[in-house]
Write a structure and sequence with these properties.
By secondary structure, the protein is an all-alpha fold. It has a single domain, classed as MFS general substrate transporter like domains (Growth Hormone, Chain: A). It contains 18 helices and no strands. InterPro entries: MFS, MFS_dom, MFS_trans_sf, Sugar_transporter_CS. Its main location: membrane. It holds the Pfam family MFS_1. This is MFS transporter.
Length: 415
């Protein structure tokens, strides 16, 4: 059968052209997604000034986006399991590109709030559809590597945001950044429409051949699947608390507590994100050999060791070193397996729904609460102290979660 890719049950030495195309599409979609999402951290101070809101209130913009991701990811995941992945993937990219553009026109904080909610619907949809599609297509022994390559999306998006910030940004010119960020995902959506074929046909054919039927969302919480679903929510909450503790307020911390210039903020965040790209590729590949448990464990320990340094107030050299260490092990190592690890919690018939619901539910608890708490406590304890506590506690939690579930690196994704 000629399809858009080979099921992961077929182990091969190399990915074919269709599989590489899917990997490129989903990775770029995640990069452009992150590009917009992380831009907000660079321009937070100016948005707070323009709309006269506090850090805690601005943090709720991230929270409402996270809520939208949960809703969009779950609903579109159900649609993708029933009718195929292609159309939802294309629609989600164009959707969030459009609302990126509209964000730049926000006349009031309330308008910004609503637009970021609508943006989040597309953001959650893209990840819940794109990741299962990719993990089902790549060879089994390349899933960790594919996950690592995919997960460079957020640090790579952070690098793009840093470069855009340092090259075109001027005080009060935050709107232009959204206008520019909107163009790539829309172009990618059109490219996907042209080049990505037969995804729906492939899913239907798999159901015919294996007798698989779609299931109601409630079945994610039935029988033996219950613990897998709960574990996926918990581990994703840990992933997201770790990520937001590191990234959500880092540029603001550098501006307010270090008094860094635009250029200096960009240099430090580029260092962190570049090391995360390298870490994601290395640990993603390593996870195919040592497994998901040990990848999480080693990366979490490395993140804990580096966390006191990346917020070092009185020694810039140690801060730079800490940013590299935390980036390499945190958004790099820990996050390298998020895509495949979450997808491996669910069988084919409920994978998009399960992935979309649990990743975004974890993001709801981890990502919705964490930025607000950091914003609230920063006035009393400082950003650095609160961020460090978040990193240490979430890294320890992830180690516990890794060893409370089975090893899945050899799981057959075609069933």
């Amino acid at each position: 059968m000629k399809t858009s890719g080979q099921p992961s049950s077929e182990t091969g030495k190399k990915m074919n052209s269709q599989q590489r195309n899917i990997l490129a599409i989903v990775t770029l979609a995640w990069i452009f997604d992150a590009f917009d999402y992380l831009m907000l951290t660079y321009i937070a101070v100016d948005i707070m000034k323009e709309f006269d809101v506090t850090a805690a209130i601005l943090g709720t913009v991230t929270s409402i986006t996270v809520l939208a991701r949960l809703i969009g990811g779950a609903l579109v995941g159900i649609i993708a399991d029933k009718w195929g992945r292609r159309i939802p993937l294309i629609t989600s990219m164009i959707w969030y590109g459009v609302f990126q553009f509209i964000t730049g026109f926000s006349p009031t904080f309330s308008f910004l709030y609503i637009v970021r909610f609508l943006f989040g619907l597309g953001m959650g949809s893209m990840y819940s559809v794109g990741v299962p599609l990719l993990m089902e297509m790549v060879p089994r022994n390349k899933r960790g590597l594919a996950s690592g390559l995919l997960e460079i999306g957020f640090p790579a998006g952070g690098i793009l945001a840093s470069l855009l910030y340092v090259s075109i940004y001027s005080s009060g010119g935050w709107r232009d950044m959204f206008f520019i960020a909107a163009i790539p995902p829309i172009i990618l959506g059109v490219y996907t429409m042209i080049t990505l074929k037969n995804s729906k046909k492939w899913i239907k054919q798999q159901r015919v051949e294996r007798g698989i039927k779609t299931v109601p969302l409630i079945n994610l919480f039935a029988g033996k699947q219950l613990w897998d679903t709960i574990h996926s929510v918990l581990v994703n909450a840990g992933f997201l608390v770790l990520f937001y503790s590191i990234c959500s307020w880092y540029p603001t911390f550098l501006k307010i507590e270090h008094h860094f210039t635009v250029t200096m903020v960009s240099i430090v965040t580029i260092l962190l994100n570049l090391s995360a790209v390298i870490g994601s590729i290395i640990f993603g590949r390593l996870s195919d050999r040592i497994g998901r448990r040990w990848t999480i464990t080693i990366s979490a320990i490395g993140t804990m060791l580096g966390s006191p340094l990346f917020v070092m107030l009185h020694n810039n050299l140690l801060l730079y070193i800490g940013a590299v260490i935390v980036g390499f092990f945190g958004p790099g190592g820990v996050w390298s397996i998020n895509a495949t690890y979450t997808a491996e919690h669910f069988p084919l018939r409920m994978r998009s729904a399960g992935h979309g619901l649990t990743y975004n539910a974890g993001n709801f608890f981890g990502g919705m609460i964490t930025p607000v708490i950091i914003g609230l406590l920063s006035d009393r304890y400082g950003f650095g102290a609160v961020m460090t506590v978040g990193v240490l506690s979430s890294a320890a939690f992830l180690i516990i979660m890794a060893w409370s579930w089975k090893e899945t690196k050899d799981m057959d994704m075609a069933i």
